[in-house]
Design brief:
Length: 109
């Protein structure tokens, strides 16, 4: 299976837009609602997870795989007036290929 590399996220976001449209159509045909991003502030990202996993499954059927997936989440109030980022802005990284993990450790906090 071919491993893909991402240098620009905007063209790959279009893949998610397409995956969402196909999922929305499939769920509508079955009379089922899509899951919501639920929880406080929509932080339980059931819809986002479904769309990303379905998109990656569709790509895998074409022989394209991704070892990792990252997403930026703009959450919370602005850090200061006019700020371009928020107090809870963060990046999440999902390692899909366990062979990429060299080890796991607990930080000393």
């Amino acid at each position: 299976m071919e491993s893909a590399s991402i240098c620009s996220t905007s063209r790959y976001t279009a893949l998610l837009v397409d995956a969402y449209a196909k999922l929305a159509d499939a769920f509508a045909q079955q009379g089922q609602p899509l899951p919501d991003n639920a929880g406080a502030g929509g932080k339980l990202r059931k819809l986002d997870c479904l769309v990303i996993n379905d998109c990656l499954d569709q790509l895998a059927q074409q022989g394209i795989s991704y070892d990792t997936v990252r997403g930026a989440f703009l959450e919370g109030d602005p850090a200061y007036p006019g700020a371009g980022f928020s107090r809870e802005t963060h990046i999440q990284l999902a390692v899909r290929n366990p062979a990429c993990l060299l080890g796991v450790f607990l930080p000393n906090l």
